[in-house]
Amino acid sequence: MFSALPLLEELVLDVCHNVRDTWVALEMLNSKCPRLKSLKLGQFHGVCKGIDARPDGIALCSRLESLSIKNCADLTDSGLISISLGCPRLTKFEVQGCKKITKLGMTKVASILRKTLTEVKISCCKHLNTVTSLQALEPIQDSLQRLHIDCVWEMVEQSGSEASSSAKSAGLKCSEKRRGIWEETNLNKKYKKYNGNGDGYASSTWEKLQCLSLWIEAGELLNPLALAGLDDCPVLEEIQIKVEGDCRHQSSPSPPDDFGLSSLRCYPRLSKMELDCQTAIGYALTAPSGHGDLSPWERFYLNGIGKVEPHRAQLLASTGHRC
Question: Which domain of life does the UniProt lineage start with (predicted)?
Answer without folding.
Answer: Eukaryota
